[in-house]
Amino acid sequence: MLAVTIPAACTDPVSTGTGHPGWVRLQGATSFEAQGAMRVEDKAIVPSTFAVAVVDSVAGVYILAYRDNGDDTGDLFALRVNERRTGAFVDCGRHQDYPGPEGSTLTIPGTCESHFIKSMRSSGGIFASAGFSRVTSGRVDVTIANGRFVGTVTDFVLEGVSSDSTLSRWRIQSGEFDLPLLTGDEAREMTYCFLSKATGQTCQIQ
After folding, report:
1. CB 15 within 8 A of CB 185
2. Fewer CB within 10 Å, N or C, the chain?
3. Residue 186: phi, psi to the nearest 5?
4. pLDDT tens digits, one per residue of 7-38
5. SS3 83
């Protein structure tokens, strides 16, 4: 069982972004679809299905997509590419290890990383899931990286552990995404409040 501690609340202001809502669709052993924008009611984020892309502090881009299952759980798909640009990002999930002093190892991530968390449930700032998987190979092709983030994923192989500690390996044959691309303060605020929102916590808007 995956368990992670997160803050009970986030006090940074949040922007909902502009333009058409985003969407992500994945087809494979496990299909996944999330579409929509962040919802705000009474100056607070409402946990609900959404999909968005944010530019991170080192100029890469995160895709964050959350699907509310309607039973107090949700599925999360997260993907990061290391540059904000169009073109191909290959060998997703590959790392390069460099030996360091005193037996330490420096691990440098590849051009893209991705994770899938299934049926995560929040309780008192802790969330647990029925399974956590990471992409060990695959490809991302980006066709638009300005204003919106648009592209495809191909042959994602995921490896992970289910809630009963069973090892699993499965494949996403193909996928597409078309997302609003948040930058600057919008991106920072979305990143700070994301886990709180996705796992049922309140991220209060000032």
Report:
1. yes
2. C
3. -55, -45
4. 333 333 333 344 688 999 999 988 999 999 87
5. coil
Rg (CA), the chain: 17
Q: Where are the alpha helices (DSSP H) in the chain?
A: 184-198
Distance of CA 166 to the CA centre of its chain: 23
Listed ranges 57-61, 81-85, 160-164; the one with the highest mean pLDDT: 81-85
The answer to whether residues 80 and 56 touch, using CB atoms and an 8 Å cutoff, is yes
Contact 29/170 with Cβ under 8 angstroms? yes
CA 9 to chain centre: 19
pLDDT confidence tier of residue 45, bands split at 50, 70 and 90: low
Residue 91 dihedral angles phi and psi, to the nearest 5°: 55, 45
Give this prediction's pTM.
0.77
User: Cβ(37)–Cβ(22) under 8 Å?
Assistant: yes
